[in-house]
From TrEMBL, chain A:
It comes from Caenispirillum salinarum AK4. Residues 187-196 have a biased composition (Basic and acidic residues). It is found in: Cell membrane. Belongs to the complex I subunit 6 family. Its main location: membrane. InterPro entries: NADH_UbQ/plastoQ_OxRdtase_su6, Nuo/plastoQ_OxRdtase_6_NuoJ. Residues 167-203 are annotated as: Disordered. This is NADH-quinone oxidoreductase subunit J. The keyword Zinc-finger does not apply.
TrEMBL record, chain B:
The chain crosses the membrane at residues 72-93, 100-119, 131-153, 226-246, 252-273, 285-307. Residues 1-21 form the signal peptide. GO terms for biological process: aerobic respiration. Keywords: Membrane, NAD, Signal, Transmembrane, Transmembrane helix, Ubiquinone. It comes from Caenispirillum salinarum AK4. This is NADH-ubiquinone oxidoreductase chain H. It is a multi-pass membrane protein. Belongs to the complex I subunit 1 family. It is found in: Cell membrane; Membrane.
From TrEMBL, chain C:
The gene is nuoK. It comes from Caenispirillum salinarum AK4. It catalyses: a quinone + NADH + 5 H(+)(in) = a quinol + NAD(+) + 4 H(+)(out). Keywords: Cell membrane, Membrane, NAD, Quinone, Translocase, Transmembrane, Transmembrane helix, Transport, Ubiquinone. It is a multi-pass membrane protein. Its EC number is 7.1.1.-. NDH-1 shuttles electrons from NADH, via FMN and iron-sulfur (Fe-S) centers, to quinones in the respiratory chain. The immediate electron acceptor for the enzyme in this species is believed to be ubiquinone. Couples the redox reaction to proton translocation (for every two electrons transferred, four hydrogen ions are translocated across the cytoplasmic membrane), and thus conserves the redox energy in a proton gradient. It is found in: Cell membrane; Membrane. NDH-1 is composed of 14 different subunits. Subunits NuoA, H, J, K, L, M, N constitute the membrane sector of the complex. GO terms for cellular component: NADH dehydrogenase complex; plasma membrane. This is NADH-quinone oxidoreductase subunit K. GO terms for molecular function: NADH dehydrogenase (quinone) (non-electrogenic) activity; quinone binding. Belongs to the complex I subunit 4L family.
Length: 203, 308, 101
């Protein structure tokens, strides 16, 4: 079988996706991790472009760029070391996780190799983006709208979950940082009671 | 043949446009402050030469990959964004059916590149600049997508080439949806870190993300910002002002004239409008501008239903 | 580039993502593992669409649903992380021995 330019490009992108995906969990800094994950997504988007999916491929770039940017924003927010350039290694059940990952890969690969896969490629002259648009607002409109409503519900849910003010008082009332060791003294500061100084109780 | 012409046009527009943008930027300052115009013409070249000769400053443990790469990536995004713009009928570098989505992806990646430029220096001012820029940049990005979809509606296509063709057959988008262009110009200010949307490289942060950059690195960053201005202006001229369409003069010349006009508008807005505090700007963008852009989209939809 | 090779790459991404989701202590890093798994799923879906469906648009529709799932996962995940951080000032999984409070 002749090796075409598309094949070479595919394997390069696949290598990039895999290696950057692995480096996400091996790098020092969480900001680096989130942009390595973005690199993995960009590589997969490139493969999708090779697979004749111009809309999904580029939309992945757009969406994942925004999503990873938000992720990096949260990283910087939650970290003690804002620039995130200090070394860190925070893992648990490491061997088990490696085993599970390798097992998942081998299992899936075995399933792929043993299955008789369909072969009915996209015709070269098919207007795939046009088809997708007609499908989204035609036969599959209910599916599409359900996804839209789900996203709306997600937005409302996210705001409710993360909001500080709640029906039963402030979310962080009486909150206590976790102990440095199990059952030990709390790490870090304890937040002011009620925050903002509105609910000072005098005993 | 067409592909060669498209590539040549792209690089010519990008390089000459960047030089012109630098001159226009200084000329705007000279015009406002009453300084002699002749000096403004020579100043960009003089500044560039000075920056080229200046030594490089190293920060403590910068991110060695993204720190030098950020200006290059910014410049590349400007070039990729410009590549979907047709210079004349059939002369376009990337003629894909989802050109406008590709431009949107370039916008999103630009916000990331500016953040990375601020973060990778490992310095406080630069990080603050990058961090607060992201907060403002993301909602402006959403706004621009609504506006661009509205511009693509009359063409019934996501291809930039088709958008120009639809304007040839009907009205220019600026006539159909004038608020769309105004909102899109906000994106231009955001993408090129200018005036009211300059939260990344502002003077109140001693230069923000470029605070630690010196010498050729700083020059590259400046050039990339100006190149992005050219790319954005060409996109705005194509999506709203009919691109290469126009009487008498040849098409590419019309595109250049319109691009320069948009550039002048963005530069003037950048110098004339003041910057709001980030928190107020964030509220303004989410509460006023974003719903407004959605309203534009709805109105264009209704308009197309009534007068197809 | 065949369907088999695309699917093997996708399963590699799923495997790496599973490793990350199981091994990371930080909530945000854990979510990155989930995202990487969904990345593999997305690639597999597009692979099947491209090689096996003759271009039927439902395959692309499914990919869009996977993307929506990613967005939901991120938004709810971050909201939960913020809620937990408010309550316990923790961004590590070990800090949560109970879901009470």
């Amino acid at each position: 079988m002749a090796v075409t330019a598309a094949d070479v490009l595919f394997w390069l992108l696949a290598l990039c996706a895999g290696v950057s995906g692995w480096r996400v969990f091996a790098t020092d800094s969480m900001v680096r991790a989130s942009f390595l994950l973005l690199l993995s997504f960009l590589s997969v988007a490139g493969i999708m472009l090779l697979l004749a999916a111009p809309y999904i491929g580029i939309a992945t770039v757009f969406m994942m760029a925004v999503e990873m940017m938000v992720m990096a924003l949260f990283m910087v927010m939650f970290m003690m070391n804002p620039a995130g350039l200090n070394p860190m290694m925070m893992v648990h059940q490491h061997k088990l996780a490696i085993g599970a990952g390798v097992l998942a890969f081998l299992g899936l690969t075995a399933a792929i190799l043993l299955t008789d896969l369909p072969s009915d490629p996209v015709p070269a002259d098919r207007a795939v983006v046009h088809d997708l648009g007609i499908e989204l607002l035609g036969d599959s409109m209910l599916v599409f709208e359900t996804a839209g409503v789900t996203l709306l519900a997600t937005m409302i849910g996210a705001v409710v979950l993360s909001s500080r003010r709640g029906r039963y008082g402030d979310a962080d009332t009486g909150s206590r940082p976790p102990g440095l060791e199990p059952g030990g003294d709390p790490a870090g500061r304890e937040p002011e009671e009620g925050g903002g100084g509105h609910h000072h109780h005098h005993h | 043949m067409m592909a060669v012409a498209a590539f040549v046009s792209l690089f010519a527009l990008l390089i000459l446009g960047t030089a012109l943008a630098a001159v226009m930027d200084r000329a705007a300052v000279a015009l406002a402050s009453g300084r002699p115009m002749g000096a403004a013409l020579k100043e960009p070249a003089r500044r560039a030469a000075a920056l080229l000769l200046r030594q490089k400053v190293e920060t403590e443990r910068p991110d060695s990959i993204t720190w030098p790469l950020a200006p290059v990536a910014y410049l590349m995004l400007a070039a990729v964004g410009l590549s979907v713009v047709p210079f004349a009928p059939g002369v376009v570098v990337t003629d894909i059916s989802t050109g406008i989505v590709l431009w949107g992806a370039c916008e999103a990646l630009t916000v990331i590149v500016v953040f990375l430029h601020g973060w990778s220096a490992n310095a406080p001012m630069a990080l603050i600049g990058g961090y607060r820029y992201v907060g403002i940049g993301l909602p402006v990005l959403l706004l621009s997508m609504f506006v661009l979809i509205a511009a693509a509606l009359p063409a019934e296509s996501l291809s930039v080439v088709e958008i120009v063709r639809a304007q040839e057959a009907g009205l220019w988008n600026v006539v159909r949806q004038p608020p769309g262009l105004a909102l899109f110009l906000i994106l231009g200010l955001m993408l090129t870190l200018r005036g009211p949307f300059d939260y990344a490289d502002a003077e109140d942060l001693a230069g923000g993300t470029k605070a630690e950059a010196s010498g050729p690195h700083r020059l590259a960053w400046r050039v990339a910002r100006l190149a992005m201005l050219v790319s954005f202006s060409a996109m705005a001229a194509t999506a709203f002002l009919g691109g290469y369409l126009g009487p008498v003069l040849p098409g590419p010349l019309w595109l250049v004239l319109k691009t320069v006009a948009v550039m002048a508008a963005v530069i003037a807005a950048g110098h004339m409008l003041a910057r709001l505090p980030p928190s107020r700007m964030l509220t303004t963008v989410w509460v006023v501008l974003l719903p407004l852009s959605f309203l534009v989209l709805v109105l264009v939809g209704v308009e197309l239903l009534l007068w197809p | 580039m065949t369907l088999t090779s695309v699917l093997i790459v996708a399963s590699a991404l799923v495997g790496i993502g599973l490793y990350g989701a199981l091994s990371q202590q930080s909530f945000v890093m854990l979510m990155m593992g989930l995202e990487l798994m969904l990345n593999g799923v997305l690639l597999a879906v597009i692979g099947f669409w491209s090689f096996g469906l003759g271009g039927a648009p439902e395959g692309q529709l499914f990919a869009i649903i996977v993307m929506a799932v990613m967005a939901v996962e991120m938004a709810i995940g971050f909201a939960l992380v913020v809620a937990v951080y408010r309550k316990k000032q923790a961004d590590m999984t070990e800090a949560l021995e109970t879901l009470k409070n």
